[in-house]
């Protein structure tokens, strides 16, 4: 049984392990305002807002795709849907602005768009001084990037977003109501949807049911249910395990300092740390899925999923990340490189979970670049992704690490290309060798995202881009060189 608030009303519902929030709403509770479009997290028609009370006692809403959010994760939370936004006959500012700006034609996408605007509005309200936190184009794109509209066109929707704060603040009072305290069941590890809250409870669940599937944000796992009709007999939800939700500073035995990122920390929570320390990684994060996906998806899920086109693994490989795994036999650590064995096969044993991922502090003098190639900028999976780190020591490349996604059955470093550059000046000849070496490092596959040839050429082009960037960044110190001169110089070398 799950207990939650739906638009301020307490609900006590029975739910099977594989039922989604969308199914619960439409099929069990008859709340039909939330629509189903793609059932795979791509279109945003099913967007809802989920309110959680944080450690500071404040209720915060985040947007989520109801079609791929497990209903059990609502336990102890506050679910807000489009059916509940208006305050009697007074429209919420997100709704009023959409009406005023003609932001809807067929209207199928509209409930989802209104809900994305609602969560944006809620965040802005929390920031209190809207004048000081203007809606930048980046923030607007991030808020609406996970919502497709096929007939209105985005300009009126954008106008609605830009003007919603000018509408009267009609908002039902229950929106600030705290969600019910989650009650852990007495035989929690026997529940088909176990929700442990501590590491000890998680290990107990893993010991009793090593065959259970683990679920975090469900943004990968749930596609097995909606697209491949897999039925989950037993799930262990890691999202409430306190120890998996922390970011801790640490020093490893080898002396490297950095952070252990709990496997259940969402991308949205990770964003400030990346923005402060890893520009290139933060930029990639802004292009990973949509707000709805980043609000729920985790690094732990991205790595455990072991997709060859997952975005984070190549970056983590380049940074020299490690994993901490837990299970009934205890804890063990291993370098991320030893985790990926073969296509979708990892070193994770049955009954083990990822506890945390180690992210080292940026090394002085080291540069990180990450380039993702996909068909769309927003909300699209990579065809090829290159992550590159190096130091320039007296004009010579040192500690070169080049990792790629989309080029093999697993995310992988390009050992031969790295060797071609290590200890060399970043000359055209060295990069020519590195590009040639790439064809020995990888024999990519053809699939819907790109042919093997496209992938091979694109990866080589990313190395060429790296060479040009190195030249440009060196030249940038020469303030007298024009951008054209810099480019000509780059091509001449
Ligand atoms: C619309 C859409 C867009 C997307 N865009 C991108 C994108 O641009 N780039 C990208 O890389 N990915 C993308 N994804 C995929 C997905 O969002 C990411 O891989 C995400 O990081 C998965 O994390 P999660 O917490 O949702 O994992 P889940 O779906 O909960 O789990 C994924 C897998 O990891 C396992 N798992 C989860 N946590 C643990 C743990 N602690 N220990 C061991 N195993 C665990 C699960 O059993 C499952 O096998 C997208 C998905 C969707 C639906
Ligand atoms: S129905 Fe398309 S994102 Fe959920
Ligand atoms: S109004 Fe028709 S899809 Fe957006």
Protein architecture, described:
The protein is built from 16 helices and 19 strands. By secondary structure, it is of the alpha+beta class. It folds into 3 domains: 1-182, Ubiquitin-like (UB roll) (Roll); 184-361, Uridine Diphospho-n-acetylenolpyruvylglucosamine Reductase, domain 3 (2-Layer Sandwich); 372-492, CO dehydrogenase flavoprotein, C-terminal domain (Enolase-like, domain 1, 2-Layer Sandwich), CATH 3.30.390.50. The strands form 5 sheets. The chain has a 5-stranded mixed β-sheet with strand order 2-1-5-3-4. It has a 5-stranded antiparallel β-sheet with strand order 9-10-15-11-12. It has a 4-stranded antiparallel β-sheet with strand order 16-17-18-19, with helices on both faces. Helix 7 links the parallel strand 7 and strand 8 (235-237). Helix 13 (415-421) runs antiparallel to helix 14 and helix 15 crosses helix 16. The structure holds flavin-adenine dinucleotide and FE2/S2 (inorganic) cluster (FES) (2 copies). One FE2/S2 (inorganic) cluster is lined by residues 104-110, 149-152. One FE2/S2 (inorganic) cluster binds next to loops. Its EC number is 1.17.1.4.
């Amino acid at each position: 049984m799950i207990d939650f608030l739906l638009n301020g009303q307490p609900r006590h519902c029975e739910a099977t392990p594989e039922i989604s929030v969308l199914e619960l709403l439409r099929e069990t509770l008859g709340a039909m305002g939330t629509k189903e479009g793609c059932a795979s997290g791509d279109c945003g028609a099913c967007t809802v807002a989920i309110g959680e009370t944080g450690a500071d006692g404040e209720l915060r809403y985040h947007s989520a795709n109801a079609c791929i959010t497990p209903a059990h994760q609502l336990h102890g939370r506050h679910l807000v849907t489009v059916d509940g936004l208006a305050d009697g006959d007074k429209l919420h500012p997100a709704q009023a602005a959409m009406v005023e700006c003609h932001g809807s034609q067929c209207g199928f996408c509209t409930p989802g768009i209104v809900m994305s605007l609602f969560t944006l509005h809620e965040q802005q309200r929390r920031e209190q001084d809207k004048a000081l936190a203007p809606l930048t184009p980046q923030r607007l794109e991030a808020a609406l990037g996970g919502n497709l509209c096929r007939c209105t066109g985005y300009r009126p929707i954008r106008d609605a977003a830009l003007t919603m704060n000018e509408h009267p603040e009609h908002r039902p009072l229950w929106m600030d109501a705290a969600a019910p305290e989650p009650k852990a069941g007495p035989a929690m590890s026997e529940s088909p949807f176990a929700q442990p809250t501590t590491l000890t409870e998680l290990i107990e669940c893993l010991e009793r049911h090593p065959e259970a599937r683990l679920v975090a944000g469900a943004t990968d796992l749930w596609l097995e249910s909606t697209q491949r009709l897999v039925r989950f007999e037993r799930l262990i939800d890691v999202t409430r395990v306190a120890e998996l939700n922390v970011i801790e500073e640490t020093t490893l035995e080898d002396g490297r300092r950095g952070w252990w990122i709990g496997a259940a920390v969402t991308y949205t929570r990770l964003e400030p740390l990346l923005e402060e320390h890893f520009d290139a990684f933060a930029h990639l994060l802004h292009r990973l899925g949509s707000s709805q996906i980043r609000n729920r998806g985790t690094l732990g899920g991205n790595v455990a999923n072991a997709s060859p086109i997952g975005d984070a693994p190549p970056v983590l490989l380049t940074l020299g990340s490690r994993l901490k795994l837990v299970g009934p036999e205890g804890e063990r650590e291993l370098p991320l490189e030893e985790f990926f064995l073969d296509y979708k096969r990892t070193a994770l044993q049955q009954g083990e979970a990822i506890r945390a991922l180690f992210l080292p502090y940026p090394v002085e003098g080291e540069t990180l670049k990450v380039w993702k190639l996909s068909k769309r900028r927003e909300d699209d999976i990579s065809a090829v992704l290159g992550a590159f780190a190096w130091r320039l020591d007296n004009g010579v490349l040192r500690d070169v690490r080049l990792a790629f996604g989309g080029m093999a059955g697993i995310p992988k470093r390009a050992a031969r290309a790295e060797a071609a550059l290590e200890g060399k000046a970043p000359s055209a000849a060295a990069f020519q060798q590195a590009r040639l070496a790439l064809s020995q490092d990888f024999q990519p596959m053809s699939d819907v995202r790109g042919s093997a040839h496209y992938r091979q050429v694109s990866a080589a082009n990313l190395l060429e881009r790296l060479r040009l960037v190195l030249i440009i960044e060196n030249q940038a110190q020469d303030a007298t060189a024009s951008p054209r001169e810099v480019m000509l110089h780059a091509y001449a070398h």
